[in-house]
């Protein structure tokens, strides 16, 4: 699909950003879709829009020193990549995980630009995080780390500048510690500087559920487009964190049955359907491992080390991390009769896997479209903060549902318009790109 101009840009990006393999992968996937767009819009080449989009507006890397419970000084690295602000203030989560380095934050920030454009809300793209590992840390250690992280980050963020939120390893507890430190340093109660806040101090109903619910709404639309529904379907959801939990909840609500979920230790299989209240208790309250599910559900099976995608299912929703679905996994899913894949995680399928899903012509919803409900509801939280209002659960969920339906419709129609009917990769990349590109052209060379 690559034309010569795009191939040159891709080579430049890889040469300029050596070693950042996940970033290269994310750029490659978008550029592969843009040939027909450049043919229709020669002005984008003239304004060097693609080259500009591939270069973050600002990249911040900082030291995060903190003291652990044994009084030992620890040093981590913090990041915030402010990628693109053509459509609004930089918006995107913070990830705390030992695998974090600049290439991960840049891939996530790059994806976020197009995802945020797809929501139709006024938000630009950014991402941040740290190589800090929250696993096994005490609440005190988490607090001291978050305070140190915010002591540098606070000078870069703001309601009109950059609005971080959660991602892997960052949930309500961490957002609380960071919000508290921001407030203390600045002596200002600025609700709009972070999203994912607690309900008593500026948070929005539905934000916790939004990414999972939104991903299921997206898959529901894909199924509907094929005259089908979730009712009676067997599903597999990887991960057991924020996104996975509310994905399982919504699938069960819609009449599907989730038979497996996982964490980095392995996966559990429960043929009766995963008992979500047990997973919530285990993960949200006790911060335990999915393996412990079998202590209370003797009939369930824990599989260490195997691939969760070997479990036969009709709907697969990867909701853990990047590149968790290999070409081999994708082949197995298709062979086992999977008809729909909705990505709750960011870039969970490898390029080999994506190719297999597209060739099999199953309904494949890429992360930047399927998981956009989380950031969309963050933007709804920003709206509520700006108007000092708070909306009901039902109203906010309705807004989220409408946003996801619109994303599906726009991706579906754009794919058709550009000659790739049913291909949501093409639809999402082109629709998101066009919005950002038109805004950048309008604003001149900045
Ligand atoms: P959480 O930290 O709540 O949960 C992450 C889950 O994925 C855990 O079960 C974790 O297992 C597992 N996991 C993480 N890294 C790995 C790994 N390297 N190998 C195997 N399992 C892993 O994060 P979220 O649920 O918030 O995020 C999940 C995915 O969804 C990410 O890709 C994130 O970028 C994406 N996303 C999140 C949004 C949000 O609003 N939170 C919005 C849009 C996308 P373990 O505990 O063992 O590490
Ligand atoms: O990947 C994502 O979209 C998120 N982690 C959510 C970002 C946000 O600002 O709510």
Quick summary:
Helices cover 48% and strands 15% of the residues.
Description:
The protein has 446 residues and is of the alpha/beta class. Among the domains are: 56-189, Leucine Dehydrogenase, chain A, domain 1 (Rossmann fold, 3-Layer(aba) Sandwich); 210-370, Rossmann fold, CATH 3.40.50. Helices cover 48% and strands 15% of the residues. The chain is built from 18 helices and twelve strands. It has helices at residues 4-16, 21-31, 35-40, 42-46, 49-53, 102-119, 139-153, 172-186, 207-225, 242-253, 276-285, 293-296, 327-335, 351-360, 367-370, 372-386, 393-417, 424-443; strands spanning 58-67, 73-84, 90-96, 124-130, 162-166, 234-237, 257-263, 266-269, 301-303, 315-317, 340-342, 363-365. A seven-stranded mixed beta sheet has the order 9-8-7-6-10-11-12, with helices on both faces. The protein has a five-stranded mixed beta sheet with strand order 1-2-4-3-5. Helix 10 (242-253) links the parallel strand 6 and strand 7. Helix 9 crosses helix 10 (242-253). The radius of gyration is 21 Å and the shape is globular. The structure holds NADPH dihydro-nicotinamide-adenine-dinucleotide phosphate (NDP) and (2Z)-2-iminopentanedioic acid. Residues 91-93, 112, 115, 165, 167, 195, 346, 374-375, 378 line the site of (2Z)-2-iminopentanedioic acid.
